[in-house]
């Protein structure tokens, strides 16, 4: 059932067994896990069924570190940020879960084996093929392509699958609406997570609409699932009982904010004969109706040997070169790249004639490059509360996103590795446009991946939630989503968010009996 | 982005000439220091040069483009402008990668195949240099530089 909180009489109280704050990928996945059960579930969604500028403006805030568009990187209506999701799917890597001596604060409370059983169902929920993310044979069979093995030992092939993308509100909204045991409360902003004295138990959620109506949701268990930025903000805002904010007795809530630093335009690869580069290496290829593309990831051995962070690179066709492109006095990028192709011709193409007899001036193609990298968990990279207030009268979010030299150094090394792999396969030559000068390029960007702000750790002094995603010190409050990631890996987080949420559902199910 | 090559210290184990040579920049930090004088002495490589340059400039490759890239290599690593040393090093690489015979006796295609093998292996082994942002194998850069000096 859908209920618009704006239409309820003021000071309505809704009771449920499980209250889920947030109707995004995590919240909807969790609610669906209880479809048809005897347990009453209330999903509290701050937005409505579609984007509304006034509602969306509640996501504005202050960015005081690396410039970050706080309201453009998430969406406040049913389906949450899945409404602008790019659909990239890949599990985290086993090494991402390890405590690595060269990565401060690394290590999950468990290994990937704990999540692996949930990835197939998570894949199904986001509408991609289960379990085929590292299976070269499978993709060779499905596409009929031969995928040359990488030669340097530095990198390995992974396969990103693309969800349609699944917009959770659109895709699963009807199910929730029809479910007798699920209420979705729309346009309902949680303004306080109300804890009992001493803060050991949550008693109620205070709800406020933009029109000024106040309601209450009471439940036995509560799950905070509003994304990696808002999860921290809501805990910090809920400071009426615990002055530092709920779960923040050790000053960890909001700290360790991580993104996947993205750099576009950091380099190009020139290719003399595109047929030497399998399509899967450079574009999305449909296999059985499911699009996939190769991701170039550092090998575990290389990460360990060089003590590096994880990263993901992808290449994409971005244009052709022809012999009539001359080097000009200004030496434009294209002209210089053409020159390199002309010089390296012998190493990049077979035969003595034109590569494409039907296009005699064609001498090669350009592949653009994209990357998403792991960053070191950093307590100084953090979410806190701003002195500015939003339309509900609450402190806005303040984000101080920071990157380190270790992050940059790692990325530069992996860029170099990619150049080696394409050279070793005789596919192309790579040029890098970022200077290795110890400074992060100004155009570093994020991937709208908000992670780490309520990190998971068995020790309450080192984490906000325990291995079951329960907030340390609070008996009935859990957190879903990438805010619990202690480290980020380099895979897009949505698939893992869904998998972790399924695991959380398994944990909660017996407790709700 | 010079450090793209110079910071890479992984798999280089073969050549032991000079840390300063651009041809071995990628090996910095791994190999012992040396000098150009410690390299194999220049030999009469005229025949081999004719052969490999004919191969390099075949298949629609462009001489002017090779020269421009060669000059860029020399500009990036001005200490490595001794043509005789370059030719000797190239000869050595061809010799090491020929399946049979010598650079003088091998056919154009055999020499080309040897160079292609060598260049691919150098990428795999991180024996590369950085030239105006480009990541090039050390031997590949030598070839362009030697043509530019010819």
Summarize this structure briefly.
The complex is a heterodimer of chains A (513) and B (150). Chain A has 513 residues and is of the alpha/beta class. Helix content of chain A is 21%, strand content 25%.
Based on secondary structure, the structural category of chain A is alpha/beta
The average pLDDT of chain B is: 74
The low-pLDDT segments of chain B are 1-44
Q: Which stretches of chain A are low in confidence, meaning pLDDT under 50 for 5 or more residues running?
A: none
Q: What fraction of the residues of chain A are assigned to beta strands by DSSP?
A: 15-25%
Spatial separation of the terminal alpha carbons of chain B:
28 Å
Mind telling me the C-alpha Rg of chain B?
Answer: 14 Å
What structural class do you assign from the helix and strand content of chain B? Answer: mainly alpha
**What's the total number of strands of chain A?**
19
Please give the share of residues in helix of chain B.
40-55%
Termini of chain A, distance in Å? Answer: 22 Å
Walk me through the topology.
The complex is a heterodimer of chains A (513) and B (150).
Chain A: E1 2-4, E2 13-21, H1 25-32, E3 41-44, H2 53-56, E4 61-63, E5 88-89, H3 119-125, H4 136-143, E6 155-162, H5 168-178, E7 182-186, E8 189-195, E9 202-208, E10 214-224, H6 230-237, E11 262-271, H7 279-282, E12 285-287, E13 290-298, H8 300-306, E14 311-322, H9 333-343, H10 345-348, E15 362-373, E16 382-389, E17 395-400, H11 405-424, E18 428-432, E19 477-479, H12 494-511
Parallel strand pairs in A: 1-7, 2-3, 2-10, 3-7, 4-17, 10-19
Antiparallel strand pairs in A: 5-6, 6-13, 8-9, 9-10, 11-15, 11-18, 12-13, 14-15, 16-17
Helix pairs in contact in A: 1-5, 1-12, 3-12
Chain B: H1 3-6, H2 46-56, H3 63-76, H4 83-97, H5 108-124, E1 128-131, E2 134-137, H6 138-149
Antiparallel strand pairs in B: 1-2
Helix pairs in contact in B: 2-5, 3-6, 4-5, 4-6
């Amino acid at each position: 059932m859908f209920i618009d909180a704006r239409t309820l009489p003021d000071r309505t109280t809704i009771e449920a067994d499980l209250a889920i704050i947030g109707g995004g990928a995590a919240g909807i996945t969790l609610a669906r896990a209880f479809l048809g059960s005897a347990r009453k579930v209330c999903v509290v969604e701050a937005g409505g069924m579609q984007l509304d500028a006034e509602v969306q403006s509640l996501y504005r805030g202050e960015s005081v570190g690396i410039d970050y568009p706080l309201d453009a990187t998430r969406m406040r209506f049913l389906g949450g940020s899945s409404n602008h999701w790019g659909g990239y799917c890949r599990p985290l890597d086993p090494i991402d879960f390890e405590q690595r001596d060269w990565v401060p604060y690394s290590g999950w409370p468990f290994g990937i084996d704990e999540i692996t059983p949930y990835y197939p169902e998570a894949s199904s929920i986001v509408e991609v093929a289960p379990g085929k993310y590292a299976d070269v044979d499978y993709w060779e069979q499905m596409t009929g392509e031969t995928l040359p093995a990488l030669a340097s030992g530095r990198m390995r092939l992974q396969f990103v699958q693309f969800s349609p993308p699944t917009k959770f509100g659109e895709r699963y909204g009807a199910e929730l609406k029809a479910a007798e045991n699920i209420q979705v409360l729309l346009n309902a902003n949680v303004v306080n997570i109300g804890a009992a004295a001493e803060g050991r138990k949550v008693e109620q959620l205070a709800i406020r609409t933009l029109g000024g109506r106040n309601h209450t949701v009471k439940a036995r268990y509560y799950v905070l699932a509003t994304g990696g930025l808002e999860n921290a903000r809501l805990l910090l805002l809920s400071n009426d009982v615990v002055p530092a904010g709920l779960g923040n007795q050790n000053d960890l809530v909001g700290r360790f904010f991580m993104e996947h630093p993205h750099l576009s335009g950091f380099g190009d690869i020139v290719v003399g004969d595109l047929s030497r580069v399998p399509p899967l290496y450079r574009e999305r290829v449909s296999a059985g109706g499911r699009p996939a593309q190769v991701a170039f990831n550092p090998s575990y051995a290389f990460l360990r040997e060089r003590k590096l962070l994880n990263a993901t690179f992808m290449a994409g066709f971005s244009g052709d070169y022809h012999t009539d492109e001359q080097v000009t006095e200004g030496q434009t990028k294209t002209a210089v790249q053409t020159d390199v192709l002309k010089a390296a011709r012998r190493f990049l193409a077979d035969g003595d004639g034109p590569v494409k007899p039907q296009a005699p001036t064609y001498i090669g193609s350009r592949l653009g490059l994209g990357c998403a990298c792991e960053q070191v968990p950093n307590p100084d990279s953090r979410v806190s509360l701003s002195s500015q207030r939003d339309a509900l009268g609450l402190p806005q979010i303040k984000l101080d996103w920071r990157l380190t030299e270790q992050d940059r150094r790692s990325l530069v090394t992996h860029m170099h590795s990619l150049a080696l792999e394409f050279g070793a396969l005789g596919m192309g030559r790579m040029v890098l446009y970022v200077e290795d000068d110890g400074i992060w390029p100004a155009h570093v960007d994020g991937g709208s991946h908000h992670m780490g702000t309520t990190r998971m750790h068995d020790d309450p002094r080192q984490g906000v939630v325990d291995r079951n995603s329960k907030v340390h010190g609070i008996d009935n409050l859990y957190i879903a989503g990438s805010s619990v990631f202690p480290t980020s890996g380099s895979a897009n987080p949505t698939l893992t968010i869904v998998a972790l949420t399924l695991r959380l559902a398994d944990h909660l199910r017996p407790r709700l009996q | 982005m010079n450090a793209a090559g110079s910071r890479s210290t992984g798999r280089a184990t073969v050549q032991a000439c000079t840390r300063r040579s651009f041809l071995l920049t990628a090996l910095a930090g791994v190999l012992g220091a040396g000098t150009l004088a410690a390299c194999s002495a220049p030999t009469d490589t005229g025949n081999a040069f004719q052969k490999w340059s004919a191969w390099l400039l075949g298949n629609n490759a462009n001489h002017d483009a090779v020269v421009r890239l060669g000059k860029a290599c020399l500009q990036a690593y001005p200490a490595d402008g001794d043509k005789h040393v370059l030719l000797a090093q190239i000869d050595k690489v061809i010799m090491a990668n020929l399946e049979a015979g010598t650079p003088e006796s091998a056919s154009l295609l055999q020499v080309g195949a040897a160079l292609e093998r060598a260049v691919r292996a150098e990428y795999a082994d991180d024996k590369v240099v950085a030239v105006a942002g480009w990541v090039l194998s050390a031997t590949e850069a030598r070839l362009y530089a030697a043509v530019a000096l010819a």
